[in-house]
Structure formats: C-alpha cells, structure tokens
Amino acid sequence: MAFPLITRQLALSLQKNVWLGASGCRYVSKTATKTQVEFDYNGPSMKTSVPGPRSQELTKQLGDIQNVGAVNFFCNYEESRGNYLVDVDGNRMLDLYTQISSIPIGYNHPALLKLMTNPNNLSTFVNRPALGILPPENFPDKLTESLLSVAPSGMTRVQTMACGSCSNENAFKSMFIWYKNKERGHSTPSDEDLRTSVINQAPGCPDLSILSFMGSFHGRTMGCLATTHSKAIHKLDVPTFDWPIAPFPRLQYPLEEFSRENAQEESRCLEEVEDLIVKWRQKGKPVAGIVVEPIQAEGGDNHASPDFFRSLRNICRKHGCAFHVDEVQTGGGTTGKFWAHEHWGVDDPADIVSFSKKLLTGGYFQKDELQPDKAYRIFNTWMGDPAKNLFLAEVLNVIRRENLLEEVTRSGKALLNGLYELQAQYSGILSRARGQGTFCAIDICDDETRNRILLKTRDKGVILGGCGDRSIRFRPALIFKEYHAHIFLNIFNDVLAQLK
Amino acid sequence: MAFPLITRQLALSLQKNVWLGASGCRYVSKTATKTQVEFDYNGPSMKTSVPGPRSQELTKQLGDIQNVGAVNFFCNYEESRGNYLVDVDGNRMLDLYTQISSIPIGYNHPALLKLMTNPNNLSTFVNRPALGILPPENFPDKLTESLLSVAPSGMTRVQTMACGSCSNENAFKSMFIWYKNKERGHSTPSDEDLRTSVINQAPGCPDLSILSFMGSFHGRTMGCLATTHSKAIHKLDVPTFDWPIAPFPRLQYPLEEFSRENAQEESRCLEEVEDLIVKWRQKGKPVAGIVVEPIQAEGGDNHASPDFFRSLRNICRKHGCAFHVDEVQTGGGTTGKFWAHEHWGVDDPADIVSFSKKLLTGGYFQKDELQPDKAYRIFNTWMGDPAKNLFLAEVLNVIRRENLLEEVTRSGKALLNGLYELQAQYSGILSRARGQGTFCAIDICDDETRNRILLKTRDKGVILGGCGDRSIRFRPALIFKEYHAHIFLNIFNDVLAQLK
C-alpha cells in the first residue's frame, strides 16, 4: 500500500505545468492556490478512449450475469486517489460525478485507510449486528460523534438505515404513524385497526398520501417511487399510489436577475400545493406529509428560493402535514453548508431530514414527536451498518480539520463563475448555469448534444453526469479545489470549442 | 487482537465438564463429538441477569436518540466468538438467534478477520462504488466466485442489493416489468405509457398485483409490506395495495404422522390461490407474481410440503404469473441444504429467488427472461456493496471446507430429537416441534409463558428468538454442532423443569 504521495510543492508545480499547457487555456488562477490535496494526482492522464478495451471485455463478461446497459466503464479503485478515478485501462480522470455524488472526501483518503488498519475496528466490519435489538457498546457514542454532531436544527433523534430508499420509506412510515396518532388523539390502535391492517384493509391500512413535486426523485422502492417523478424509465410498469403531485417552480437563472418572475412562479406552485392538500383531503386521502428536495437533483438541478421552502414549511404547519426534506443528494457539505436547508436560514427547517450517499450510511433525523412510541414499528434486521458510522465519523473529522465547507464555497464559486463565462461565450450551446457550492449544473441546447459533450469530456479526462432532460450536473467531492475547477473548465472549453 | 483460541482437546474436556455439571442433565452425547469449533468458547458464562446494569445504562443513553423498545441488551462484539455472544456486562451466551438469523459462521470467524487484514482488500471497503455504472475490475469474478457458485437451479443471473427489503422490492418490480412486456408482446412502451407513468397513472403505472400468503413476511418497505401479513405492528397506519392474500397451510406436526390431513389442508390453500388469481384478474388487478417463503419464518415457522410448492409453481405456469421464492431467512444453509427450495427436488424451482441475512449482501437470482432488457429500470446508487461480496466468498469457502451443510443436518437432528423428547416430557407446555436442519421451532402453550421462557433461558446463557403468536424459533449459525444442541437442551430442560 505504498502511495506515491505528491507533496504540496510538487503538486503545485506539476499543477502549473498542466494548467498552462492545456490548449485554449483561459483559466489561469489569479490568486495563489490556497490548499492542495496531498494524496491527489496532478491531473488527468488518458491512454485510451473510454470505455477502453479492458472495460469492454469486462462489460461483456458482466453482461452474462446482469443488465449492463448502465455500465460506463470498470474501475481500478486501488489506483484511484483523491479527485481522480482510474479505470481498468489505465485512464485517470478528474471525477466531478463521484459515484452519483456519494464519495465525500475522494478516493482512498489516507484517514479512511488508516481507520481500516486499526485492529480495534476489525470486529465492527466482521460482525454486522441487528442494530435494533443488539447494538454494540459504542453505538450511542458513535452516533453522537458522527450523525448527531451534524444534526439539523431542532432535531436530536436519528435513525440509521441501509440506503437512501430505505431511509425515505421509513421516513414516510413515521409520518403516516404520526398523522394517524394525531387523528386518534392517542397512540393506541383499536382492535379493528389491528385486525384490518394485517389484511391490507382500512382502517388499519388507511388511505393516506404523501405530496411530492413534479421532477422530484426520492428513490425507487414502491413507497419512494410513488413520490418520484423525474423520468418515466424509473416508474414504468410499476403499480403505484394515487398521491398528489404539485408543480415545482421552474425558475429563471441567474436567480438574482429574475427575482420578480421567480417569486411569481413560486407563488403559483405554492397555491397549487394548498389546493392539492384540500382536494386530496376531500378525496378521502389526506396528505400526511410533504416530501421535497432542497434542490431537485436527478430531475435536472431545479432550485427554489429560501422563501419558497419557508412558505412550504408554513403550509405544512397550517394543514397539519409533516414536512420531510430529502437531503440524500444535497446533504453532506456539497452546497457549502452541511445541509442545503441551512441556506433557508430557519430554526425549525423540517420534521424529518433524510440522508444517504455522502453520509455513507442511510438514515433520517426526526423531531421527537415523529418518532413512533412503540417498538418494531420502524424496524428491520440491520437498521444500517455500524461500519459506515465509523467511516462517517472520520469523514466529519476531515471536513472540520480541513475546513472543507469553506473550500467547497471557494471552489464552487470558481466553478460557477467559469460556467457563466463559458455560457456567455457559447450561448448557442450553454444556458442556465446555476449552483450552490460545488452543487452546480448547466443546460445544453439538446439531449443529443449533452450526451456528446459528456462522452467527449470523458475522453479528455473529466467525468461528469447528466440530469433532467438536457442538464449536466457537477458533483465533485468535498476535496475539490479551485485548481480542479480550472482543470475542468479548460477541458470543457476545449470540448465546446471543437463542437462549435 | 490476541484471541485465546481453545484447542480441540481443551475444548472437548471443558465441554464435558460443563455438560455433566449441568443440573437436570439428560443429554450426554452418546456418540463422540465429530467436530469442534476451534475458535469457540467452551460454554455460557453468566455474571448478571440480562440486561445487566451496563446494558441498562446504555439503553437509557440510546433512548435519547432512538426508540429503544426493541433493544434486548448491548453487545461486546470484540469478545464474542463462534456460537457465543458476549454482552457489555461480561455475560457470555450461546446464540441460537444470531442477529435474527444473519450471522452465517459465528462471531469473529478467523477467516473473516484474516480477510480484513489483507491490504489488497482495503480499497473495497474504503471506496464504495455505484455498482450499476462503475463496477470494480474484480466484480464479475467476485460474483462468479461467491453468489453464482450457489445459484439456484436454472438461474445464471444475479442482482445484488443492500438489504432484504430492497431485494424483494426490486424482485417485485422485475416481475411487473416482465408481466407488462408479456402483455405488450414486446418491451417498448407507448408514449402514453411513458407520459402517464411519471404522474402515477395507468397505463404507465398499471394496476398489477402480487399474491402473498397470510402469515408471510417479506419486508417492511411499502411494496414488501403489502405482501407481509405476520403481525399488525408491522403494517398499522401504513397505506397499502389491494393485493390478494391466500391462506398458508396450517399443518399438523410431525408432518409424517399427518400426511393425509396435511395434504387436504394444502389442497384447500392451493384452490384458494387459483380462485384469487381469477378473482383479481376479473377485478382488473391481475396477479403478476406469487411470492412465498419456503418456511414462513417471522410468521411462526410454518412449513409446507414439497408437493405444495411444486403445485404452486405449476399454478404460476398455468396462469402466467412469475414465481418468487423469498429465501431471505431460509437461504444460506441453515435447513441443511444451501437453499430451502432444494428440498422440493425440482429442476426449475422459481423465476426469482431473493436472499439477504446469512448471505451478508441482499439480492436476487433470476431467470434470463425476468431481467429487464433496458438499463436503469432496476437501479439505485449502490446496488449492494462489494465489501459484502468479499465476506460472502470467504463464508462459502468455509462452508465447503468444513462441510457445514452436513454438520447442520447432524446438529439439526440432535436439536429436533431433543425437542421431541422435551415435548413428550412437558406436553402441557410444548407442542408442534418442527424443523429442517437447524431451522427449528416449537410452540409454547401461550404467549406469556413463551416470553417468560425466553427471558429465563437467556438468564441461563442461551439466546433464542420468538416468532408467530407463541413459537420459539431456533436460528443458530452454521457452525452450531451437536454438542451445542446438547448444551442448549440441558439448559432448556432446566428452565422447563422450574416452570412446571
């Protein structure tokens, strides 16, 4: 495990070489680079187009076992470092997609490798407990040290789960249970409730609903999927619930230039939300909760203002619905704050906040009253994985020690300003550059051009992801620095220049 | 990490001491013990009643963060070994419940610890990939070495998932997609399908159903939960689907003594299954698939004959439904065969077989035609966890090397014969002893006595679990030997003698 660690000085000098050597380079940094990633590579290095021959061979092999239609290429995770993903053909790419936004501090971070070699941690990996019945001794401490240290305002309770979908499913269940208990006035079900619930009938299984937004993505298990409305391919052929779907604001960017128009658009959507709540109550399917992403990610990086979310929160209070903020993709620091909802500037942002991806474990925070008072209502065999809590605690240490939220704000600014400049230069191709921290996106003139750009950029050593109909989303790790933004922008510029 | 490994000889002699010293001992082994677990402890050792003071303190602490109503006690996983779980108060208990049947080869198995110290494996733990798009180089090989080496008859395709519920949810989705494509005659959705699916409407989101059985347990996310009918507390207050629920045979035990009565009961249930398929088709909610456990576990260890399952398989063929066998609890060797469905003796047991728990990773095997032909229909960020495949491959090596399926058959026989004897002796308390391999259960006269027995047995150093209304289920690890069965039976005998 000998890592060729690049020193700060060496990295800086190598960096400059790559930088100035890039063709069409316009992004020479004006300020001195503040921080380098010590265990990072010095730039992309491409040996083949992607997927290369070895990836193609492995894809064929895996194709005998699984559907491989979504496989991009095969990776050499041992050789990947920091912001760079290395593939099995020896290509080294700057990664602005990070496994669908789920690698918090880059590949093979020394702090995480060190944790693995600590013999005191072995047992946590080898003996996966049924956390809900037989937790390990250090479980309360580890939760306090990891998740509770980043608990959203007003929340002291957290439940871990295995993945994002399980987190949202169980958050929905908590909201249903809370709503029914509120309706009952107490938490003791009737005999009829008990009897009918087992056979899928009311009143035990009531006709409650969750209100979600067009363009949203909350997961793919059947409860979550009923609130997901980003792409048809996710939902096609799967039975679902008749739950209300509100329009999500379709804003104009840059937000500050269209504040009047955007405020009108948001009002329209909020009115629709209230109408739907009333309509579904009349239908006999009352809205127990509203679920929303602070930025719709999979659906195309759709933003809304803090005002919009504050109003939504108030609508929930007014109509007695729970408010569930899904931070599976936005959480973990990538917007420049640990939670995207912190940008709203409110003390009581939500009743439930769910997470996964960069947090490494799934789960959700909740207010006291949302936690069911009886055992086994929210339960499964594993209820998460303490090994992931170990990693998360270390990730949070690194974030604090290296001031990564500040870094994200700084590199995010470099990234977004670069996108604004490119958008001005290539106005026939690019539009709607937007973002918060490094959680940025830009629209491409059409789907086909978008996909062509993604492939060409990858062949030049940068991994990006698509979202929505024709957007590119940027989801680098928290150790992505200004100079990484510049490397990307230079390459992106080259690709766009060749397209023009 | 110095483990006080007990040698075979020492263990044997210590074992004999414990054995003969137990009060009311009747289970002195008549044959020489064939195999010892080398890294095991020599017997239970109790210092406090359970939960002890330290567990109580930690439960209080965790209670500020989560609902702790289901917490039994806190564990010292570092000190746990083989068949013995050690708690934070220094109590060492023989574990016949194994984290709800999810520890395949005991605690801290040396083979798994060794795997953790291999530097080649570090990267797999530290860099969790988005498996569906960017798999690691060794992924096809690891699948072949682990899961495919135990693929059910007729299946060469496997999809990993994070947990049992996700496995079943995605298996259901595969069956819905397969059914709709069959109905279409091709796999290309119409524009109307695409448009309506995003807004939760037919025909894009069709009114299909999954037929399940009373008493079944298939998980707690909302799709799974619609097929779970074991206990009200799992389902209460959660909206669900109007899907058909068939009666599961309620057999008399021992099965061989009641073959005529049981065959009648099974016929009755099978008729009902066919009636429901017809009825739901007429209702406009055709049954796309049937899901069943080979032994209903959570629901009370309810068995059915190989004939019953073969007939069910044929009913599926006749009515064009997919057949999904849920082996989340029964899979992994505990019935004496790797899959419980192998006891049916058929070449084409199912269209889908799902797993989790003892397999360490969730997932499902499927026949070729059940795999959707388009990308992103079955997908999520993680799609499982390659670190779990590493462990599984090693677990399978140990199972083969140590002939653990034979051992399970042998120790299961000792366990079940002991239960038969105790049932004859305590006929007012015990009834319906039943089992396959070590996957055994026995009924107690009433729920309250059952729970009293569970606590008393635990205080004497044996961990058991309940299931159904008043059953005790036995779910030891695959390294549970005849002499462990005898240790348990002696203690159980003591508890029953004191109850009488």
Automatic annotation (TrEMBL), chains A, B:
Matches recorded under SUPFAM superfamilies: PLP-dependent transferases (SSF53383)
Write down the chemical reaction(s) this protein catalyses: (S)-3-amino-2-methylpropanoate + 2-oxoglutarate = 2-methyl-3-oxopropanoate + L-glutamate; 4-aminobutanoate + 2-oxoglutarate = succinate semialdehyde + L-glutamate
Q: Which cofactor does it need?
A: pyridoxal 5'-phosphate
Q: Which GO terms describe its cellular component?
A: mitochondrion
Q: Name its GO BP terms in alphabetical order.
A: gamma-aminobutyric acid catabolic process
Stated EC number for the protein is: 2.6.1.19, 2.6.1.22
Cleavable signal peptide: none
Superkingdom, natural source: Eukaryota
Q: Which GO terms describe its molecular function?
A: (S)-3-amino-2-methylpropionate transaminase activity; 4-aminobutyrate:2-oxoglutarate transaminase activity; pyridoxal phosphate binding
Keywords of the record, alphabetical order, are: Aminotransferase, Neurotransmitter degradation, Pyridoxal phosphate, Transferase
Q: Kindly give the NCBIfam families that the UniProt entry links to this protein.
A: GABAtrns_euk (TIGR00699)
Job description of the protein:
Catalyzes the conversion of gamma-aminobutyrate and L-beta-aminoisobutyrate to succinate semialdehyde and methylmalonate semialdehyde, respectively. Can also convert delta-aminovalerate and beta-alanine.
Task: Give the similarity note.
Answer: Belongs to the class-III pyridoxal-phosphate-dependent aminotransferase family.
Assembly with partners or alone: Homodimer; disulfide-linked.
Q: What is this protein called?
A: 4-aminobutyrate aminotransferase, mitochondrial
- From which source organism is this entry? Monopterus albus
